Amino acid sequence: MKFVNPRNAPPSTSRIPYWDENKPAGLDGSIPPAKVLNDTQDEILKVITEAGLTPDPNDPTQLWQALQALIASIVAGESPSIEVPPGSISMFAAAGAPTGWLKCNGQAVSRITYADLFAAIGTSWGAGDAVTTFNVPDFRGEFLRGFDDGRGIDAGRAFGTWQDYATARPKNDTVQRVNPADGSPVTLQQAGVGQPPATNPSQVGFVRASKTGERIVTGDFDPGGGSNPYVDIVNVVTGDAETRPRNRAVLYIIKT
Hints:
Blueprint: H1 34-50, H2 62-75, E1 89-92, E2 101-103, E3 108-110, H3 115-121, E4 133-135, E5 174-178, E6 185-190, E7 207-209, E8 215-217, E9 231-232, E10 251-255
Helix pairs in contact: 1-2
């Protein structure tokens, strides 16, 4: 609740306490503005209705009853209802959406049945049939990322747009040396670091891969002094079809 200064107090941006009348000093008492009484009543009514009671102007004990009921529900492991605005996204630890929520699976739903949700998100995630339905977001199998909104970290993207997976370029040039006889790796070092350096033309046999995708082949080199050349290779195709962190699959849902 916001504090409201007395109506007959001098203009101020600071809090001015209420005061009593002082007739000998010729001081009138402070006058509370209507907002003080209205806000106080609204706060009390909110507590009463959240406790499941119907406001009764003839019952002066309702606030006490409401507080007792709310405290009892908390002790019992329950919680007062919390208003969640339509369009809110949440994760759910079950395969089905609870009452008042829909799966974020791209489905088209009625603009009338889900009028509150339609008012909140409109056709941002699909226009449905463009007349009677609209689409909810489809977050199946997706990681969500905060909208850049002008920050410049993920610039150039409109709200709600999809982005394909990608792997960042390495920050340093790398070289991998393998034995051509069996393909086994010999060393993995930064280009130009260690012996022999990949950029030294007298010590050939390295393929240098730069962070811009450059490939430089300089020939053959046997670091052991033998006759078998070692061949350096880069961009060995291993792993999965995407880059991802460890994860668990949950259900994304949207409030209707």
